[in-house]
Amino acid sequence: MRPSSGADAAGADRGERWLPFLFVGPAILLLLLVLGLPAVTALLQSFNMVWVREPGFSLDAYRQLATDPQFASTLSTTALYVGLVVSLHLAIGLAVALALNADLPAKWLFRVAAILPWTVPDVISGIIWRFVFDTLPGMANAILLRLGAVDQPVDWLGSPSLAFFGVVTAEVWRGYPFVMLILLAGLQAIPAHLYEAAAIDGAGAWQSFRYVTLPALRNMVIIAVVLDVIWEARLFGTVYGMTGGGPGDATQLVSTLTFRQYFEFFNPAYASAMAVVLAVTMLVVAIPYLRVTMSRNA
């Protein structure tokens, strides 16, 4: 018996529903292999369950983390670094976004120039700024000596406080365009009639910024800050290319300490435990981002 047209239509509908999954299936599988497999491996390795001579469930790595003064110091350094960098990214990114949102001649050229630092790979950025802050041929010392601001070259990367300042400067320069782009998109989405209504009510530039721009940018600011915190907390290339975490542990972040524990000290379980702690922390930080995006899509 020949199937009815209704059965044919139902089969066609089922095929159409599954067609998108067929197209995205290979990409999802690739993501699971590239992201999921290393994450699961690191988790198992932190519990001493894989890639060891005598595998078996153990919490030794996490116990060591809880009592390791170097890890505690590195956590505080990472928190200070992330707080400073993200705050400066937000301030500079908002200022540049406001400037680029104004009616400027050749505005596209200024936008391209503002984005350029973000195109530099983080390791290359670290190497570039290492030469900028180098003691003898460095650009910073050359300028200060020429202006007479200092009598002798400053050992920027040899001093703990100055090295930390240098790393923050390098990453602020490289990373602010990310926040700027998010905030610029938010500025362009603000309806013009809100500013017109504020002007009719007698609001000046500051009042319009305070009562129109900032409230309208609230969700975009949350998204930018959360994503930037996650990005900076896992940063490796800039610090490693510039100072390697030194001098001492002055610029040591969780990411660089994890790398050293794994590849220099050959302590994979301990390094994996650090990575797991950092990943869990970032998942907690991501909760505000998920709330904002889910409310926007609701």
UniProtKB/TrEMBL annotation:
PROSITE patterns: ABC_TM1 (PS50928). One of its GO terms (biological process) is transmembrane transport. This is ABC transmembrane type-1 domain-containing protein. The chain crosses the membrane at residues 21-44, 79-100, 112-132, 175-195, 216-233, 269-290. Keywords: Cell membrane, Membrane, Transmembrane, Transmembrane helix, Transport. Residues 75-291 form the ABC transmembrane type-1 domain. Belongs to the binding-protein-dependent transport system permease family. Signal peptide: none annotated.
